[in-house]
Write a structure and sequence with these properties.
The structure holds four protein chains of four kinds. Chain A is built from three helices and seven strands. By secondary structure, chain A is α/β, with parallel strands linked by helices. Chain A starts with a helix and ends in a 35-residue tail after the last strand. Chain B has one domain. A three-stranded antiparallel β-sheet of chain C has the order 1-2-3, with no helix packed on it. Chain C has a three-stranded antiparallel β-sheet with strand order 6-7-8. A two-stranded antiparallel ribbon of chain C has the order 4-5. In chain C, a hairpin with a 2-residue loop joins strand 6 and strand 7. The N and C termini of chain C lie far apart (about 60 Å). The chains are: A alpha/beta, B mainly alpha, C alpha+beta, D alpha+beta. At the A-C interface, strand 3, strand 4 and helix 3 of A face strand 3, helix 10, strand 6, strand 7 and strand 8 of C.
Chain lengths: ~160, ~325, ~400, ~120
């Protein structure tokens, strides 16, 4: 069994419902397609027991119906586990992971600014990356967001 | 009356210092550039910079004390112009001389640093204030070794008059060789006085923008820049008079050329020094000055006193 | 002295790009540090969604000027993975060579900037002079000094000819000699050591906890390198050492970077020797099938991560970029703990920050209302013209002359 | 003890070396761009077949091909928008576009950056 298969088997053994949700896309790339309610426990298990201890990034995207969040976790060996969770578009809330990964703060602020997601438990701090005078309620990465101002053409 | 006005404003006073200061700046920048394998500026660059700055609008910050803010560059210029009158340039006597003028010149040359401090402090900007405090802190570090090493030749000559020192070394050739360690110390501390690398801490641009000069612009900035250039010439003249007191007995033209060569040598040495090092931190600069330079200067003084006591009785 | 808060940025000589830090000082000592990022936000991630894959190769390349090859390679790798394209061997070797040449120019650039930040301009002038050697080589192979435009989906756009091979080898010898010299300077110039060692400490555990990447992490003894751990291009066929250091300070980061320079020369020699003959690209479809991929790349500054999601059309559904600086910036606060203001520029510079990469996105927005007291550009210009007029200097004649000259 | 001034020898040696910098705007002889340089674009109207692949692929929408008569095309290139990636040159099936070595394109007037390559009347 390869390293990826070992990790997959361990995940399924611990969390039965992942049976069809864990996918090995290629060498060193594992995806968990929907971690659902158990996200916290899966994250703990992956980072502590399976060794996916490095948080590389958090991707947030909007597919028109719901928001998708991908937590890219890496192992020093080079394997990458991508854990996905979904939230509904209205009243979207996610719990912060800064208590486990202090480095996640900037990624979570980015989600707040660009997707307008509420992150529960994220402390006060400077916003990132939009400017301070950016209007309320405008979230560029949402699919229904449209550019309002256009730069006037030069003389 | 007319003669003294000419000597104050034209030669060897203000005008001479301006021209020599700009030329000195050019030489310094050109050598610095060539040592770094660059072409460097054309000869008129310092003058062009000065004219450009002088043609700009002066902006005085709302918060600043306008009187102090505007007066400081003028104080700096005045102090330096005054100091050059007491330094023997190409003869063994200066234009004006009295007992103890060495100490007066040293303190006149300290005034520019104080004006940097006050100018920075009264412009009330945070960068300026930090720069001002650094300028003053640095002053306490380099001033002691500088003072001790410059007074040492005077101790040997048994006079604290610059003209007296020149006359003594003119009548006792080769004695100046004793003062070479002091010369080295003065050169290094001079870098601190003129705020050049490795002691450009008060205006370290990557840390505090332009330090004390952050809020200065236009003519006031031009004057400050000019003051630094003139200070370089005045200080180099002082070092030349104290440490390189030879070739003073020729006719004025040859004497003047020799004087220029001495100043050129000192400026070149400073350019070379500032090419070689990284900027120190203020605490490192303090400990360097007090741990190494001050004891060395003290050794120089002891050496000179011993020499005086035993040989020149 | 009471505590003061001083702003470093958005415009500050220590920073080569606009970013804002505020530092609380007590005397010279740093008590607190906070960063406000986002000044370089250009909306690239959003813009990627409106453009085709081919256009996006060039757009991602312009995320950053220094690590342009890193971003475009990471992007095309992700797209190739989704589309199931296997690029020719020669193309992957060429990508490896360009990537190492880029690392060389980036590290030499860093060495110069580090010299400048500690007031050692001579080091800056010398390293940047020698950096021209590798810039010339890059210009010869790819056409330009930065933004090489080398990648395309399915391979590379330009081949390396026999003559260029010889030139590269010659340049490597020259650069190796120069780098050895800089290693001696960095390790035996007293003032440099005084300014670098013990500054910006980032202990191993903190580096791991805060998610540091690249040379910043490796200088804290974290043995991690995407080139070896998650090989891409031709790195799985090339032997190289991963340079680590246990100093944990800016001095260690300098040693890691110069060490990586030496490694890069070896990698390029090896890649040039092993490079097989053959085509340099395969044809890629304009429409990429639905799918997703995560691509990692060891940029000069650390691990660069691109996530691409496609939906079966000509345009991607989502492109996510995690530049190395974003991972590293959070270590700066730790490094600055209890240091002096004078250490701040070099500590920030030591993570080799690239804020353009970090910020990526904008939507251009006209400022609706001017702030009180600020002048608009036209107003400022009119003020300037008037000011000079009052002084008796009139440029209007000169302007007319210039206009005429421009027309001719 | 480690002494400062490690670069002394090299620095002094520089005096006798030719400077690495050039007087750029006055001396341009040294500036020879490599053959693969991607500079200002050149359009050959007689070769264009109007497939508009260049328009489709341009990341900056800097190029516009206009049909003026049967089999006659004009190109508008906005050098202010162009990012000089030369993708249009690569994609053109008839080699109607060419990247030249010209790079000094700065202008005080934005309008000057828009250039039109007219087809010669037949």
């Amino acid at each position: 069994m390869t390293r990826e298969e070992v990790a997959k088997a361990a995940l399924i053994k611990k969390f039965g419902f992942l049976e069809n949700l864990v996918r090995i896309q290629r060498e060193r790339r594992i995806f968990i397609d929907d971690a659902g309610q158990d996200f916290d426990r899966i994250l703990d298990f992956a980072s502590e027991d399976l060794g996916f201890s490095v948080l590389c990034a958090i991707t947030g995207s909007d597919d028109g119906k719901r928001y998708e969040f991908i937590y890219h976790m890496a192992r020093p060996k080079g394997d990458m586990l991508n854990i996905k969770i979904y939230t509904p578009r209205d009243g979207s809330r996610v719990k912060t992971i800064t208590d486990k990964f202090p480095g996640a703060e900037i990624f979570e602020r980015e989600l707040t600014d660009l997707l307008g997601v509420k992150i529960d438990g994220l402390g006060e701090g400077n916003r990132y990356p939009l400017s301070d005078d950016w209007p309320e309620g405008e979230y560029p990465l949402r699919k229904d967001w449209v550019k309002k101002d256009k730069k006037p053409e030069g003389k | 009356m007319l003669a003294s006005l000419i000597s104050i404003f034209i030669f060897p006073g203000f005008m001479f210092l301006v021209v020599a200061g700009l030329a000195g700046q050019f030489i310094d920048r050109k050598i610095y550039a060539r040592l770094q394998n660059r072409i460097g500026p054309p000869w008129y660059q310092p003058a062009a910079d000065f004219i450009k700055l002088a043609a700009k609008e002066d902006i005085v910050p709302d918060e600043a004390n306008p009187g102090m803010f505007k007066a400081m560059p003028i104080f700096a210029l005045t102090a330096i112009t005054t100091s050059i009158l007491y330094i023997p340039l190409w003869r063994d006597t200066a234009l004006y001389t009295f007992k103890g003028d060495l100490v007066v010149v040293l303190y006149l040359l300290t005034i520019p640093t104080l004006t940097f401090f006050l100018g920075g402090w009264y412009s009330t900007s945070l960068y300026s204030k930090i720069g001002a405090v650094r300028a003053l802190t640095q002053l306490f570090a380099y001033e002691v070794p500088l003072l001790m090493s410059i007074l040492a030749p005077g101790l040997l000559a048994n006079t604290w008059s610059l003209s007296g020192i020149s006359q003594f070394y003119a009548s006792h050739p080769w004695y100046w060789l004793v003062n070479i360690p002091g010369f080295a110390i003065s050169l290094i501390t001079l870098l601190g006085k003129l705020e050049k690398v490795p002691f450009d801490i008060p205006e370290a641009e990557t840390e505090i923008v332009a330090g004390t000069f952050t809020e200065y612009s236009g003519r006031l900035m031009a004057m400050f820049k000019l003051a630094i250039d003139m200070e370089a010439i005045a200080a180099a003249s002082l070092l030349a008079a104290v440490y390189l007191p030879f070739g003073l007995s020729f006719n004025p033209v040859i004497g003047f050329v020799i004087y220029l060569l001495k100043v050129l040598f000192i400026i070149t040495a400073m350019s070379l020094l500032r090419t070689l090092f990284a900027r120190l931190r203020i605490d490192q600069m303090m400990s360097f000055c007090w741990k190494y330079l001050a004891p060395l200067a003290f050794v120089q003084i002891v050496l000179n006193l011993t020499l005086k006591g035993f040989i020149l009785r | 002295m009471r505590k003061v808060v001083i702003p470093i940025g958005p415009q500050h000589p220590a920073l080569k790009e606009p970013e804002s830090f505020s530092v609380t000082l007590s005397g010279e000592r740093i008590m607190a540090f906070s960063a406000r990022l986002g000044y370089n936000h250009r909306g690239i991630e959003k813009a990627c969604e409106d453009r085709s894959y081919t256009q996006n190769v060039y757009l991602t390349e312009r995320i950053c000027g220094i690590c342009s090859h890193a971003h475009s390679t990471a992007f095309v790798q992700a797209v190739e993975e989704i589309a199931g394209i296997k690029i020719p061997d020669r193309a992957s070797y060429i990508r490896t060579i360009i990537s190492e040449l880029e690392r060389i120019h980036s590290h030499l650039l860093w060495l110069g900037v580090a010299g400048h930040e500690i007031g050692f301009d001579t080091l800056l002038m010398y390293t940047w002079r020698d950096r021209e050697i590798v810039m010339d080589i890059l210009a010869q192979i790819t056409g330009n000094r930065v933004n090489y435009g080398m990648n395309t989906i399915g391979g590379v756009r330009r081949d390396i000819s026999e003559e260029q091979k010889k030139n590269i080898l010659k340049a490597m010898d020259k650069l190796e000699e120069r780098t050895l010299y800089y290693i001696t300077v960095a390790t035996s110039e007293r003032t440099v050591i005084e300014r670098l060692s013990g500054v910006g400490l980032l202990p191993h555990d903190d580096a791991v906890r805060l998610g540091a990447v690249g040379p910043t992490a490796r200088a804290s003894g974290v043995d991690r390198d995407t080139r070896r751990d998650d090989p891409y291009a031709a790195y799985d066929r090339i032997k190289f050492k991963v340079i680590t250091d246990a100093h944990c300070d800016v001095y260690g980061r300098t040693l890691v970077r110069v060490g990586e320079l030496m490694e890069a020369y070896k990698i390029i020699r090896q890649a040039l020797k092993d490079m097989p003959e053959g085509p340099i690209s395969v044809k890629a479809p304009r429409k990429i099938p639905a799918g997703e991929a995560v691509s990692r790349y060891e940029a000069p500054r650390g691990e660069d991560l691109h996530y691409v999601k496609s939906n079966g059309t000509e345009k991607p559904e989502r492109v996510k970029v995690r530049a190395p600086t974003l991972a590293n910036i959070q270590t700066v606060a730790k490094m600055l703990e209890d240091r002096q203001l004078a250490d701040l520029p070099i500590v920030i510079a030591a993570i080799d920050p690239c804020f353009s990469c970090t910020d990526r996105m904008t939507i251009i927005k006209r400022a609706g209302s001017r702030k009180h007291g600020a002048m608009a550009w036209d107003e400022l210009r009119a003020h300037g013209i008037n000011w000079y007029k009052n002084k008796g200097i009139d440029f209007s004649e000169l302007n007319e002359k210039l206009k005429k000259a421009n027309k001719v | 003890m480690i002494w400062p001034g490690k670069m002394l020898k090299q620095v002094l040696g520089s005096i006798f070396k030719k400077p690495a910098t050039t007087r750029y705007p006055f001396h341009k002889k040294e500036l020879d761009m490599p053959d693969r340089f991607r500079g200002k674009l050149l359009f050959h109207p007689e070769m264009c077949i109007g497939c508009k692949m260049c328009m489709r692929d341009c990341p900056a929408n800097a190029i516009t091909i206009r049909k003026i008569a049967d089999k006659e095309f004009e190109a508008d290139i906005d050098l202010g928008k162009c990012i000089y990636c030369a993708q249009c040159v690569d994609i053109c099936p008839k080699k109607a576009l060419e990247a030249t070595k010209k790079f000094e394109l700065a202008s005080l007037v934005r309008g000057k950056l828009k250039i039109t390559f007219k087809a010669e009347p037949k």
